[in-house]
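Reply to dn_fold:

You asked what the input looked like. This is it:
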Amino acid sequence: MADRWPHIAVVGSGIAGLRAADALLKREVDARIVVFGDEPHRTYNRPGLTKKRYPLSDALESTIAEDVRVKGAENDAVTWRLGTAVRSADLSGRTLRLSTGETFEYDALVIAAGVRPRTASGDGGECALHTHRTLRGLGDARYVHQRLQASEKVTITGAGFVACELASLAKEYGCEVLMLEALRRGPFESLLGERLATALGRRLVQHGITFLTGDSAKELLCAAEPSHVGPPPDRSLSDRSLFIEAIGSVPNVEWLDGNGLDLSDGVRVDAYMRVSPWDNVFAAGDVARYPDPWTAGSLTRREFWKNAIDTGDLAGRSLASSLGYGSVTSPIGYFPSMSTEVLGLRIQIAGDPRTSDAMEVVCGDPDEPEQGVLVAYLRDGTAVGAAYLDKGARYNSAYIKLLRSLRER
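and this is what came back:
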């Protein structure tokens, strides 16, 4: 290598990659840290792309970019290689092959490549009726907000966080909204259960959204033939309605093929974010699958902002420790928590309701979530999760008390 300092490669310029780099800097590791990102932007608040309506503007993308800026992303103590994707990795040879045709030799590696939207129609497509899109990056957000500003009809497939936030946003823009959920009976059903999901589905309808499930939704699904990458030509804006797929995600792991890793659902790591059997490779964020601190003997992969922050920080500290800079004594202890707002309703979820075998109403009525409802999710009689839905803060103290009991379990 050209200089005497070790080279640390961070593949992924999202919040997990940034936090890993920050952790290395805090430990004052003598190394050259290089962050690779396939987008041309430094780290930004990706969840923020669906949460706010913007005024009509010729500088829409820069307006959104400024709004979702992340503190610390301006840090120039690391080297940023933006607009540069990593095509493949040779972990035994400690080499990355880049989209520019270059190779990069590293001494240690952090895998923070994140996920990409899952689609039913390949990596892009259009049909006679619809302009097919997903929303993951700033470029997607500019295009989608631009189309929603035209107050046109939009179809959204899925009923998870992104889908519901987009539906709420589209209604704010004055759009006619159709939501299709072919697999479940309502929003967040895999987390909240059938009763709350059904109540949330009714609430969507009450706010003017056409919400179809099951066979009714399947009949209106559209699988376009892939025919392009990126936004379609301008000619399509006037004769195709917007069709947004928000049906989950796929971990970005293909570039790691051929290295003998378990890539069945992201990158498998241990409780310190280490990628076995490599003592110089770590993973963090949406792409990392680690031992679940909540369910002994199982692995988990989570796609939430706080998870990316916590695992990114741990991966950076573990890497620093491997180079002799301090020690890491505590494994991952991530406490799952997430929140969103849909049509004015605040939804907060903590713990892991998916592992429960029963639901107990603590306050309110699950069939009237806008009036406030707090539920506990139990497994073998012990609380393992909580959900609080409200337009205000009626039961906030009860929710905090329930959170405290979850953290102490």
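The longest strand covers residues 382-390.
Hope that clears it up.
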